Amino acid sequence: MEALKTTDRLVDLVPLILSAYIEALTDLVREHDIKAELLLHENALDSLLEYYQDIFSKVDITDHVDFYVTDQDLPYTLWITEHDERSRADITFHENGGVRGVLMNDFPTALQWARDEFSPYLETADPVTVNLTP
Question: How far apart are CA 54 and CA 52, in angstroms?
Answer without folding.
Answer: 6
